[in-house]
Amino acid sequence: MTSHPHVSFSTPAGLHEAYDDDDLAPRKRLDTDLDPAILPQNDSYINSVYAATNYASYDRTIDPYSGLGSTHNEIIDQSGLPDSEKVIELSPDERYVRLNTLLGKGAYKVVYKAIDREEGYEVAWNSVQTMRTPSNKELDHEIQILKSVRHPNIIAFHDAWHNDNEFVFVTELMTSGTLREYIRKLKPLPNLKIVKRWSRQILKGLVYLHGHNPPIIHRDIKCDNIFINGAHGEVKIGDMGTAEMKLGKKYTLIGTPEFMAPEMYEEQGYNEKVDVYAFGMCLLEMATGEYPYAECTNPAQIYKKVSAGIKPACLGNVTHPEMLSIINNCLGPEDERMSAEKILEHSLFAVEPDVILMLSDPNHVHLTMQVVFKGMDKLSVKFDFNVDTDTAEQVVREMIEEQVLPERYQQHITKEINRILRDTDKPDEPVDDKPSVWRRENDIRSELDRTRLELQQTTEHVLDMEAKVEDYEARARNAEAKYQEAMHRLREKQQLFQSLDEMVSHPHSESAVASSNTSSPANTLPVLPSSSTTVEHRLTPDSNGYASDGSHPPHEPPSNALVSHLVDEYGDDTDIDVFVRDCALAAHRSQEKAQEWSKKLQNQDIMTVGDLRDLHDEDWAGIGLTVFALRALKNMLKGKRLLAGQPLLPSTGTAHSSPATSAYLSPSPPPQ
Ligand SMILES: Nc1ncnc2c1ncn2[C@@H]1O[C@H](COP(=O)(O)OP(=O)(O)OP(=O)(O)O)[C@@H](O)[C@H]1O
């Protein structure tokens, strides 16, 4: 039961008040307990409360394990069962049955014991009254988050559903209540070792949550929301309902005033460090047994202190210097606050090793012991101990000298060995029955369970990664095949251009003829009738740009007009624009294309024909022009210029005059 108010803008205030009395009233008392003054004056709301009341009190009698009677509401005799074992409610899919055992109630939820009939274990049935039915989208989002969270130090989420005005979710059942209740049980205070062990587990849970991308912020860490399984000393973070993926900064004010970092009040946005602040308050409560800001009587007073940077009064009761420094850091400014991971690495939380007795002869003289380092460094050191000749101090000193043990544990391990010696000294008591050894075995077993779970999670992760890698490999192979194919096609095209070039330059050479007969685009080209080292003007284009013999009807591309024309060389100082424009014209490319080529050349500081001539072979590739454009430019430069039936347009060159406009005979060039 939480006696301190819970600020939540998403929870109906009336319901807080309703649950804030100490009587653990079942839901059916809602209608009578609620103060009408704090209820919304709305008939439909009041009706829905009544509906919920009736629903809850409706006696759907079901056998907890068999579910008999569940589908047709037939009343079966439960008189043999104790009241607490009676079944009150069934989940929509009939997997979970709620028993008549109230585990507790908080500011906005009531928690009952339930049974998972599929797995056969007990679970916690959390019932939250809502003013409105959450949309499926909202619910799916929250459920998605909760289901994705799996860690030994976080209460497992199993299932969720909603009825009218009620949201139910089923979680792992914790047997020993909250950390807050437990602290009070360990009067006067839990010792340092226990505080460290609890803290380590809370921090591990936080490191896990904050390690998500984006981080999951719990937003309501406090000792009331941390639960204990007393038998194994296991600690788990619960009440994940308020956690939310951090997408940038959050602006929702939600939490418990005493545990809320100043930036949460400011509404300027906050990040996962608010959980570290709240952890600092938990540490303070564990170390002092006092609720932080107990000196304040209302949230407004707390807010005033927090925003003025005034720390809780009980901080003055923390005597352990390292503990004090960590708490101060947690409660300090956000940018100086350590991450949960950093705090976990702090020497205060370094795991103290356990010493266990493994073997003993019947006389308890020859003992075999083992130092077990839990947590991060899973080391263990096994050693023999002769009760008649050895002492704990001397054996530990030797192990430190031999660097088998770190020196900082000298005192602790010596103490532990002496404890075992004292225990074994007691005759007639079988070693196995000793509570301390039993406790350690349990510790190890639960550590083993945790490690198994971690291993399973890691294995799943590795399998997942392997599947992804295989997928990437397949994609890479596919891309490689496509690349090879493209290269092959490119090479074919280059060869084709080469042979066409050759055919144009040496029209009667065998290779040119051969290639012209084998390459499909070239097959359409007539073989030049005579060879000439100088280029001959075979056909003169008419005013329409077509050969004067009329062999090319106007709809045929002029490139097929076999007209050659020798033109003057371009001077080195010819403007590159002029040269390129001519070149494009000769290659039947538009002036826009010419400008594009020109721009690319000028980007490489090629401003004149001379600059172009100075280029080395390897520089050409870096210009960023297509193979076709490069070839056109190179051929033009080498003087392989032929008129191609294109109308002779006057050169527009001004600064540097262009030679008579020339054309490059293009073999059906690919589209640019
Ligand atoms: N998983 C669980 N196993 C056992 N008991 C539980 C579990 N969850 C909650 N409880 C019990 O129910 C009580 C109410 O739960 P809880 O404090 O989470 O409610 P709440 O409405 O979220 O309150 P608050 O927001 O003030 O923390 C707890 O104090 C605890 O005794």
Automatic annotation (TrEMBL):
Compositionally biased intervals (Low complexity): 510-522
Q: Which UniProt keywords apply?
A: Coiled coil, Kinase, Transferase
SMART domains, per this entry? S_TKc
Which residues fall in a coiled-coil region?
448-496
Which segments constitute the Protein kinase domain?
A: 97-349
What residue spans carry the region label Disordered?
1-22, 503-561, 650-672
Superkingdom as given in the UniProt entry: Eukaryota
Q: Where is the composition biased (Polar residues)?
A: 1-11, 650-665
MF GO annotations? ATP binding; protein kinase activity
The protein's name is: Kinase-like protein
Q: Which organism is it from?
A: Hesseltinella vesiculosa
